Amino acid sequence: MNLSATILLAFGMSMDAFAVSISKGASLHKPKFSEALRTGLIFGCVEAITPLIGWGMGMLASQFVLEWNHWIAFVLLVFLGSRMLIEGWRGNDDSREKAPNRHGFWLLVTTAIATSLDAMAVGVGLAFLQVNIIYTALAIGCATLVMTTIGMMVGRYIGPLLGKRAEMLGGIVLIGIGVQILWSHFSG
């Protein structure tokens, strides 16, 4: 795989994380750049690790991974999205000032895993190609770091406009990504 294909793959893999990071940034109370960078690092690390895991699994048992990855991603994304919808529904626009300043580490890791399962499936496919998986995984991780950090900062400016609805919108985005993953699996 050449450099341009690797870069396109890396940024393609980071699009789910970008969409989710906008909603994550919007649901916080004026997130700082350091929080955006922290989120980007968490998402980037997870997104860099999952193709390596997928590549290793592809070497061992590709059929099982390809059979179940869409269901795992769907369940995780719908669970997290539903949680965000419920939290958004409970609050009102006045509670925007009470929004947290940062997300918990494990919530970010879980969300990052849910959005990076497609990278694991790509890793399975890469196991059958002549690619340097380390460079490819690093490219995916770096692209995700950049896109997630930018997404968080975009969300910072969208959040005050949407109020508490930002969290509900984020939940809808997560559920939508989960449904899209399942739909694309079944539609071929």
Helix content: over 70%
Structural class by helix and strand composition: mainly alpha
Enumerate the spans where pLDDT stays under 50 for 5 or more consecutive residues: none
Please report the total strand number as a whole number: 0
Beta-strand fraction estimate: under 5%
Mean pLDDT: 82
Spatial extent as radius of gyration: 17 Å
Largest sheet: none
* Number of domain modules: 1
Series of H and E elements:
HHHHHH
Distance between the termini: 24 Å
Helix tally equals 6
SSE blueprint:
Layout: H1 3-13, H2 15-27, H3 33-90, H4 105-126, H5 133-162, H6 165-186
Helix pairs in contact: 1-5, 2-5, 2-6, 3-4, 3-5, 3-6
Structure commentary:
- The chain has 188 residues and is mainly alpha-helical.
- It has one domain.
- Helix content is 83%, strand content 0%.
- It has 6 helices and no strands.
- The longest helix has 58 residues.
- It is globular.
- The two termini are 24 Å apart.
Keyword list:
single chain, 188 residues, mainly alpha, 0% strand
Summed up:
With 188 residues, the chain is mainly alpha-helical. The protein has six helices and no strands. It has helices spanning 3-13, 15-27, 33-90, 105-126, 133-162, 165-186.
